[in-house]
Amino acid sequence: MGPKYSSSRENYLKAIFHLQEIHGTVTTNHVAGELQTRPASVTDMLKKLKAQKLLLYEKYKGFKLNTEGRKVALQIIRKHRLWEFFLVEKLHFRWDEVHEIAEELEHISSKKLIDRLDEFLGFPKTDPHGDPIPDSQGRWTLTHQVDLLNLPVNLVAEVSGIGDQSAEILELLNHKHIALGTRLEVKKKFAFDNSLEIKIRNQSVTISEHVAKNVFVKYDE
Amino acid sequence: MGPKYSSSRENYLKAIFHLQEIHGTVTTNHVAGELQTRPASVTDMLKKLKAQKLLLYEKYKGFKLNTEGRKVALQIIRKHRLWEFFLVEKLHFRWDEVHEIAEELEHISSKKLIDRLDEFLGFPKTDPHGDPIPDSQGRWTLTHQVDLLNLPVNLVAEVSGIGDQSAEILELLNHKHIALGTRLEVKKKFAFDNSLEIKIRNQSVTISEHVAKNVFVKYDE
DNA sequence: TTAATTTTTTAGATTTGTCTAAAATTTATT
DNA sequence: AATAAATTTTAGACAAATCTAAAAAATTAA
Ligand SMILES: [Mn+2]
Ligand SMILES: [Mn+2]
Ligand SMILES: [Mn+2]
Ligand SMILES: [Mn+2]
């Protein structure tokens, strides 16, 4: 048997899942923006996902995944993140190169494949961007993290996640040698533009509010 | 950019490539049989592949790939066989489990991915069924092998390839402990039904003509 | 509370890949 | 060579996913 849902449907499920994590409920325009498609196409797909009993949807009223839809979405996210981990750890890709490839690999249907891959990789808990990898039952361990704007000054912390994951921000972070696991300290906050001066391996680095908002760290206590 | 050709088109190219290796030129029914589809669907696709300049085709006259079509087909075969190797060597799948999964993985488009995978695997020359893996330029080294029916008696040889690769024959070979690299010797040929008695690790095993025809070996001299 | 604006849905097309049934062509048989 | 059988192609249909333009509904502003 082939895949249970088409790649397109899987992409919709994943996008809706992510959007409802942020906004609680999801709108047609949200999804169209996320998937670079037209609102009319989204509406078409909503009907299909509802007919397949993956989605709670009444027209003009917004929508969200039901239990089954969430379950399916989590398995796709699991595949996406395990493949990203594989690409970085085993094939030595950079973290800003893996997303697009994983966008394709996440649609490979074999469950056995993904469980074997998980084992081969040593059951990693997070992907190369610090995002948690659901286990084969769709569970994940959530880590409590704060963004850099909310990190108290003079407190050593470790980078544990990235919000916006566009190639642009990843390139900037690469340049400033900020990666997952990097230890750093906020030395100064400028009230004028909310920019920060941080210390990384004894080097002083300045980052904008926009960047700071998208870098998450964890620290003791 | 996404894939250059759809999965469907890639499957046709691969099927035509294999069939023309055997028969020189290919017919509509051949392809329909190979791809489990209808002759009318094949004709439809032939027109598209011709329009894309991958195929030499005039109606009612048979067809074959042109240089470009062959090039594309070889890259898909490369991907298929590298993924099969990965599945067996790294994820410990059996050789009779990998074909279907590789049928999906072969359509992942990233060229960089497949070249990195090749490197990660140590540039293997053959897949788990003994078939050669084309390099990134589409070249492969052909090995001269004979099937078991044509192996002289009392001559130690090594299994190097399998003809028919259905799950059924692979299961039979597994059961009789015949795998790639197995060393064996034909001890007796029965003229009555062309069955063979062969010696594997000092054990005597009998195989039918049908099996013998599909087991290829190489030997010195 | 109307009116204007934005969002969402519908109606109708288009593209890709597939199918069945019928027609055209080639191949095999008498 | 004529006929029968097999193969291949065409004609016309359908499902999936997408789009544009227009209509409907909801939201915001006056
Ligand atoms: Mn995807
Ligand atoms: Mn990621
Ligand atoms: Mn395939
Ligand atoms: Mn193989």
From TrEMBL, chains A, B:
Domain of life of the source: Bacteria
Gene3D superfamilies according to UniProt: 2.30.30.90, Iron dependent repressor, metal binding and dimerisation domain, Winged helix-like DNA-binding domain superfamily/Winged helix DNA-binding domain
Keywords recorded for this protein, A-Z: Activator, Cytoplasm, DNA-binding, Manganese, Repressor, Transcription, Transcription regulation
Compartment(s) where it occurs, according to its Swiss-Prot or TrEMBL record: Cytoplasm
UniProt-recorded Gene Ontology molecular function terms: DNA binding; DNA-binding transcription factor activity; protein dimerization activity; transition metal ion binding
The HTH dtxR-type domain, residue ranges: 1-66
GO cellular component, one term: cytoplasm
One Pfam family per UniProt: FeoA
Subunit comment: Homodimer.
Similarity comment: family membership: Belongs to the DtxR/MntR family.
Biological function: In the presence of manganese, represses expression of mntH and mntS. Up-regulates expression of mntP.
The protein's name in its UniProt record: Transcriptional regulator MntR
